[in-house]
């Protein structure tokens, strides 16, 4: 490069802040902000539901009495003393509900973290490494996908003796059966990200493979990770409830599923004791609904085509499309 | 000062369609030398293998055969681990080559830290600021993210990143083809200035004959994986010998011919038996790289 061409006036290096040097404001959002979804009614309702249930599970047990106190007022309806009535053995349903919500949330959260970590390990490492590692990891996650989840969970839970079946066993079983689909999604996304130029640039700069994965690739997978995490929390809470309802849950813990299990054993349905089985069912429904709504909002980050146009506040009005339209909009 | 020697570089890709396998030779026996203070341009159509050469030099692809050797100032080959201290690359698309998640500082700080050019937060920031100044960017951009910068500014950041390890050999893979026409000249002039200041060896990959002629000393014309013509920039452009180079030169718009009928232009010659030969302007004759001996002229 021996010759330098003269620059035409105005095209020389412009001073900072001069018009033309800054990029036009684009719709693309990056960095940490890209991980946060746009504020939509869907997201607001979802977060509201999740927050309400979480607060109930978090603070409720502090305010409630002992859920195991047995009274001689079995199966009475809601009243001033017992807002949600009592069970067959006179235990307060509200007290039980707070404990059960906390237990379900705990299991959901642990399973979510574990399953997401597992899927990230298998999906991202496999997708980045390629070759034999990828083949092996893909085979593993495909096998896990094909195995029907709930029957396997039932078999494993049944295999562990009831007295050893703590909540950690349930968490492990649910995490081990629930990571596969997330791993496939993450693998696909990793395959797309790892061929981008900035990953190549990091390699040229001499970054180590684990650093390329953790620092260059993983942050760009955060929206997918978050969505998969929320999804696995929902799945975990639902399957834990299913397991406990079948009597295969953790033996020493109380969750929404165990509440339903005892309600069913106490013939709550036949005796019209709706206050016993409706509240736990409603909480499961509210939690699942809220998390699903949050997940839908997260999906909009991953797939911008789901975003409906005209949502953004600073969308310029298309007033100049036709003179008629312009007149109308100024008149209005 | 680092010299880069490329000898008989070959790259083959395996194509799989169903059960059948075939190999595609993307680069065939490419040989050239990058000398400090000189720019070599590689010109060719899309798919001619010029980007593959760049990726092999940057060690993103492994050559099927052939050697790429970086010779340090003492004339000794650079060892593998130090290779990336000497050879760096500027990518084509500045919108893809910066990680949208990280700040500009991160992009400059990582190579500085990795290659031991700076230690500690203060020193890294200072050096990153110096790098930004060298590429004519305000240091205030340091905490911005790539999407807040224009294409030209991003490409300057990419150049600064390539300079951060103290590289003496820069491979620029179509550095301006994705930029606005208005910022192209600025980036090219910047590369030319940095090259003169640091006596860098630059491999400038492009499909634009005009900028290749202005900004480089030597031109290699690539077609279908082979170098078909090589020599000083002016000689190759003004006196093309290979039919492919003639086609390329004829494809450039010529203002003097404006208004005349296209058919009045001399038709470029159809493919001849010289397609697989290389015309070397320095030697002044055709060379058959497969035969290792001069071909009949």
Question: Can you walk me through this structure?
Answer:
Chain A has helices at residues 32-35, 41-63, 93-129, 131-146, 149-159, 167-178, 180-194, 197-205, 209-245, 256-265, 274-302, 323-331. Chain A is mostly helical and 332 residues long. Chain A has a domain at 38-57 and 92-303: MetI-like (MetI-like fold, Orthogonal Bundle). In chain A, α3 packs antiparallel against α4 (131-146), α7 (180-194) runs antiparallel to α9 (209-245) and α9 (209-245) packs parallel to α10 (256-265). Chain A starts with 31 loop residues before the first helix and ends with a helix. Mean pLDDT of chain A is 76; it is low at 8-30 and 310-332. Chain B has 297 residues and is α/β, with parallel strands linked by helices. Chain B is 31% helix and 27% strand. Chain B contains 9 helices and 12 strands. In chain B, α3 (104-114) packs across α4 (120-134) and α3 runs parallel beside α5 (151-163). Classes of the chains: A mainly alpha (332), B alpha/beta (297). Chains A and B meet through α8 and α9 of A and α3, α5 and α6 of B.
Helix/strand structural class of chain B: alpha/beta
Q: So what's the CATH class of chain B?
A: Alpha Beta
CATH topology of chain B: Rossmann fold
- Give the total of domains of chain B: 1
**Spatial gap, N to C terminus of chain A:** 60 Å
Oligomer: heterodimer
CATH superfamily of chain B: P-loop containing nucleotide triphosphate hydrolases
**If you average the pLDDT of chain B, what whole number results?**
84
> What percentage of amino acids of chain A are in beta strands?
under 5%
| CATH architecture field of chain B | 3-Layer(aba) Sandwich
> Residue-averaged pLDDT of chain A, rounded?
76
What does the largest sheet of chain B look like? 9 strands, mixed
Number of helices of chain B: 9
Shape of chain B: globular
For the secondary structure, the number of strands of chain A is 0
DSSP strand tally of chain B: 12
Order of helices and strands of chain A: HHHHHHHHHHHH
Rg of chain B (CA only)? 20 Å
Sequence of secondary-structure elements of chain B: EEEHEHEHHHEHEHEEHHEEE
* CATH topology-level name of the domain at 38-57 and 92-303 in chain A: MetI-like fold
């Amino acid at each position: 490069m021996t010759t330098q061409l003269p620059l035409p006036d105005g095209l020389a290096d412009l001073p900072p802040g001069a018009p033309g040097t800054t990029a036009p404001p684009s719709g693309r959002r990056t960095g940490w902000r890209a991980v946060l979804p746009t504020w939509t009614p869907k997201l607001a309702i979802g977060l509201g539901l999740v927050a309400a249930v979480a607060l109930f599970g978090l603070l409720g047990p502090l305010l409630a009495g002992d859920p195991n106190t047995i009274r001689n007022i079995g199966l009475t309806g809601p009243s001033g003393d017992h807002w949600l009535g009592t069970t067959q053995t006179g235990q307060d349903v509200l007290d039980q509900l707070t404990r059960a919500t906390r237990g379900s949330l705990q299991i959901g959260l642990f399973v979510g973290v574990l399953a997401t970590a597992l899927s990230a390990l298998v999906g991202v490492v496999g997708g980045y490494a390629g070759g034999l590692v990828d083949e092996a990891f893909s085979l593993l996650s495909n096998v896990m996908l094909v195995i029907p989840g709930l029957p396997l969970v039932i078999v494993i839970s049944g295999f562990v003796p009831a007295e050893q079946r703590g909540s950690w066993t349930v968490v492990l079983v649910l995490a081990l059966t629930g990571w596969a689909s997330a791993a496939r999604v993450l693998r696909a996304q990793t395959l797309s990200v790892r061929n981008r130029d900035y990953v190549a640039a990091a390699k040229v700069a001499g970054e180590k493979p684990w650093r390329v994965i953790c620092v260059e690739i993983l942050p760009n997978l955060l929206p997918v990770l978050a969505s998969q995490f929320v999804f696995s929390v929902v799945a975990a809470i639902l399957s834990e409830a299913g397991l406990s309802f079948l009597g295969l849950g953790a033996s020493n813990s109380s969750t929404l599923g165990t509440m339903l299990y005892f309600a069913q054993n106490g013939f709550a349905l036949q005796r019209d004791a709706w206050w016993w089985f409706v509240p736990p069912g409603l909480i499961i429904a509210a939690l699942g609904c809220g998390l699903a709504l949050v997940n839908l909002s997260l999906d909009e980050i991953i797939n911008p085509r789901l975003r409906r146009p005209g949502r953004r506040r600073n969308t310029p009005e298309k007033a100049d499309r036709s003179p008629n339209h312009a007149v109308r909009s100024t008149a209005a | 000062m680092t010299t880069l020697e490329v000898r008989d570089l070959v790259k083959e890709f395996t194509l799989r369609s169903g059960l059948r396998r075939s190999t595609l030779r993307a680069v065939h026996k490419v040989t050239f030398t990058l000398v400090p203070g000189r720019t070599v341009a590689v010109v060719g159509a899309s798919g001619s293998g010029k980007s593959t050469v760049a990726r092999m030099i940057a060690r993103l692809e492994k050559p099927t055969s052939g050697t790429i050797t970086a010779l340090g100032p003492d004339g000794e080959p650079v060892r593998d681990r130090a290779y990336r201290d000497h050879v760096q690359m500027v990518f084509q698309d500045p919108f893809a080559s910066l990680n949208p998640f990280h700040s500009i500082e991160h992009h400059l700080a990582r190579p500085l830290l990795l290659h031991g050019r700076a230690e500690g937060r203060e020193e890294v920031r200072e050096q990153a600021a110096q790098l930004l100044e060298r590429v004519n960017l305000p240091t205030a951009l340091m905490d911005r993210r790539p999407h807040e910068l224009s294409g030209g500014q991003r490409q300057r950041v990419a150049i600064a990143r390539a300079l951060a390890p103290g590289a003496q050999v820069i491979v620029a893979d179509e550095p301006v083809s994705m930029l606005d026409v208005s910022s192209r000249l600025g980036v090219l002039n910047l590369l030319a200035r940095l090259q003169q200041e640091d006596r860098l060896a630059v491999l400038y990959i492009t499909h634009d004959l005009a900028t290749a002629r202005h900004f480089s000393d030597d031109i290699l014309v690539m077609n279908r994986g082979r170098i078909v013509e090589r020599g000083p920039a002016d000689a190759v452009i003004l006196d093309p010998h290979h039919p492919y180079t003639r086609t390329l030169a004829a494809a450039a718009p010529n203002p003097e011919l404006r208004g005349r009928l296209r058919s009045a232009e001399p038709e470029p010659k159809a493919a001849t038996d010289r397609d697989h030969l290389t015309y070397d302007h320095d030697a002044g004759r055709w060379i058959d790289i497969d035969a290792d001996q001069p071909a009949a002229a």
